[in-house]
Amino acid sequence: MLATLAQAARTAAPHAATAAKRPLTWQDWQDWPHVLIHYGIRLGIALLLLLIGIWLAARVANVGRHAMERAKLDATLVSFLRNLTYGVLLAVVIVAALQYAGVPSASLIAAMGAAGLAIGLALQGSLSNLAWGVWLIVFRPFRVGDFVQVGGQLGSVERVDLMQTWLITPDNRQAIVPNAKVGGNEVINFNRRGTRRFEHVIGIGYSDDIGKAMGIIRDLFTADERILTDPKPGVWLTELADSSVNLTVRAWTRVPDLWETQTAFLRAVKERFDAEGINIPFPQREMSVRYVNAPPAAMPPANQ
């Protein structure tokens, strides 16, 4: 039955095109039902293909999402890739359905390409942020909670979106850095290695015992359990400065203990030096004043 109707529609289509150029006759009116049936069938099949295609596109996108979730990808990236896959498949289905319905697809594809190019040029900065956002989520140079320096900004990572990175600064301000600026500059992650080194220069007086001062510092390394033994801490004589003999101290600790460890260590150094009579000098200047006997000034004549 459908084959008969399709054959009739193919036969009637040339007559319909010819009828548009001449006055309608009784024969033309008899062919129109076949033409309408033909295009009605094509339109129905195209609509059916569209519905099936939409269902299949959603199904494929969801399957891909489940696979990415099993691979433990970031939830934001999973959602973005799922929606991107669904959008691309949906565009293909719509073009195929319109083409089957008899709508010329070449002009439609050209229009979609031109629209995509215009949108891409208009959203160039946003697309750059989006591309860097995908890169940051996939390669993970830092994670939520890491203390980082990105785009010239220091802070703890609150979250990473597709368009920007959210930081909490040390003074509890929120900084939002575009992902293009994050990815286009150096990224310094202070937490990734798990340990940090602190370094201080401590000056003692020229009259103090250098070996004794260095021994006190080594004892303080051992006394604080938060200071790691591997890598080994150390103290070195590094400079004979204008007002002091400078000792450079370097020690390693775990990242969460860094701030408290180095402040407690400096306090312990000051207290032990005071107890052992070792001075921590401050800059001083010596000034000599010399008097020179100058000849007396010539007295003017009395008659002037």
Characterize the structure shown.
The protein is α+β, with helices and mostly antiparallel strands and 304 residues long. The protein has three domains: 2-122, Helix Hairpins, CATH 1.10.287; 141-189, Roll (SH3 type barrels), CATH 2.30.30.60; 195-276, Alpha-Beta Plaits (2-Layer Sandwich). The chain has helices at 2-19, 26-70, 75-100, 105-122, 124-139, 179-183, 210-223, 258-276, and strands spanning 147-150, 153-160, 164-168, 174-178, 187-189, 195-204, 234-240, 245-254. The longest helix has 45 residues, at 26-70.
Label the overall shape. Answer: elongated
The count of β-strands is 8
Instruction: State the CATH class of the largest domain.
Output: Mainly Alpha
**Could you say what the CATH architecture of the largest domain is?**
Orthogonal Bundle
CATH topological fold name of the largest domain = Helix Hairpins
Mean pLDDT: 78
Structural Rg: 41 Å
Quaternary status: single chain
Order of helices and strands: HHHHHEEEEHEEHEEH
Strand order of the largest sheet: 4-3-2-1-5
Low-pLDDT residue spans: 1-22
The class by helix and strand makeup works out as alpha+beta
What is the number of domains? 3
What's the number of helices? 8
Q: How widely separated are the two ends?
A: 145 Å
Which key phrases capture this entry?
single chain, 304 residues, alpha+beta, Helix Hairpins, SH3 type barrels, Alpha-Beta Plaits, 3 domains, five-stranded antiparallel beta sheet, three-stranded antiparallel beta sheet, 8 helices, disordered N terminus
